[in-house]
Amino acid sequence: MKSGSPTLEVERSYLSEGYRFVAGMDEVGRGALAGPVTVGCVMIDAAASPHLPQVKDSKLLTSSVRESLVEKIQAWCSAFAVGHASAKEVDALGVTGALRLAGQRAWWHAAEKVRADVVILDGSHDWLSTPREATLMDEYLLGEEAPAGLDVPVHARVKADMSCLSVAAASVLAKVARDALMVDLDRAEPWFGWRGNKGYGTVGHRAAIAERGPSEHHRKTWNLLPSV
Q1: Using alpha carbons only, what angle is made at residue 157 by residues 13 and 26, rounded to the nearest 5 degrees?
Q2: Mean of the per-residue pLDDT values for the chain?
Q3: What is the pLDDT of residue 1?
Q4: Position with higher pLDDT, 37 vs 148
Q5: Best label site of 6, 24, 71, 170, fewest CB within 10 Å?
């Protein structure tokens, strides 16, 4: 496999364990100052899904190529979804808890069509499964309909978006969805430059925060002001 060219080798390896439907999941927005964290979920039939050319980790693709791949990915996979957790939820839960919330929202939405047997998660640890001990999320979601925890194995894999096609596809869906959301938010508050910076901490973005103060879409618990 050439670097940056994901395959279905890992997904198909689970067939020997009796896992036919595999979910690839990836996140975007973890390091932003504003906007949600977003998780993409792509469920495939490892026994039948063909290779899908051009799809790579979203960071390796231009915005126009990512956008051109969305419909192809949606037609290729067995089920897909994108879940968000807002800046307010990031502040309340911490970034890991917010990623879990966004991921479980994506999982259960996709699972309405197909329930995968196993999850491949991009990263070095499982941020998707609900811990057994009580968490801040439990308190925060008290009185709300919280997503149920996943009932399938979750395998975290470093750089899975580079090696696993389902995860790379999920990264594209997540990136395109979050970018579109930030462009929409930019229309109401263009001085923060979200159309270009997508909520990340550029010099111009931090300077605008210093001048105008944070908006409702900023993560108030984060270090938002420009470095001195």
Answers
A1: 105
A2: 91
A3: 40
A4: 37
A5: 71
